[in-house]
What does this fold into?
Amino acid sequence: MNYGYAPDDGETPLVLAPEDEADRLCIGLYARTLGDLPLGGRDVLEVGCGRGGGASWIARQHRPRSTVGLDFSAAAVDLCARHRHAPGLSFVRGDAEAMPFPDASFDVVVNVESSHCYGSVPAFAAEVQRVLRPGGTFVWADFRPAERVATALGELEAHGLRLAAQEDVTGRVVAALRADDDRKARLIHAWVPKVAHPLFRRFAAMEGSRGFEAFAAGRTRYLVARLEKPASVRAA
Ligand SMILES: C[S@@+](CC[C@H](N)C(=O)[O-])C[C@H]1O[C@@H](n2cnc3c(N)ncnc32)[C@H](O)[C@@H]1O
It folds into this structure.
C-alpha cells in the first residue's frame, strides 16, 4: 500500500523470506525508513499500518519485544488481525491524533506514507512525543509538495522531538514506481471496472499519472526522517 523504495546500485539488497518477495519494494521503504535502528527487545508502534505488511515484516525480521499496528480503518485492522501473525504482533484501531495508549508506552514509533492523510500533523507529533519513552525514536517516511518540505519537518519537531537525520529519497521512490508499474497495471486490469481505471492509476501513482509526473519532475518530494525524544527533560 505504499509507493515503495528501490535501492540504488551501491545499497545491499534486502534478504527476504520467499513469502515476502512479492512485496519487496514496499518492504524496501520500511527498511530504508528504519535504517540501522536496532529493534530487538524493544516495544514498537506503527501508526497507519494499513494492511499490516510492514508491521508483520518488522515483527518477523527484527524481533522487537512487541509490535503494535495502529490504523484508523476498522476494516484494515480487522484484516490485519485475521491474516497477520507473528511473535508479539497485535493490531489496534485508533486515530494518529488521539492514540489509545498511555504515556511512555513505546521505544520506537514508525510512520510510513500515512501522515499526509492527517488533519493535523502537529497534533500527531504531540501524540508521538507523548507515547514514546524518554530516549525513544520516531522514524517517518512520507511525501509533500516541494515547497512544503521545510514546514513538514518543522511540524514533526513542533512538540519537542529533535530531528536527528533526514534524506530526500524521491529518486528511489520513482525507481520503485517504474519497477512496479506493469504489476499494478495487471492488477487494475484484473480487478477494477474500466470506468475507475484513471482513478486507480492516479491513486497508485502509475507512469503518466499526475502523481507520478510530480514525483519525476521533483514537484513532490519523498522524505525519510529520524527524530529523537530527549532522554531527559531539563527543568525550566
Ligand atoms: C497509504 S496507507 C499506508 C499503509 C502502510 N503504512 C504502508 O506503508 O503500507 C495509509 C494508511 O494510513 C491510515 N490512516 C489515515 N489517517 C489515519 C489516522 N488519522 N490515524 C491512523 N491511521 C490513519 C489509513 O487508514 C491507511 O491505512
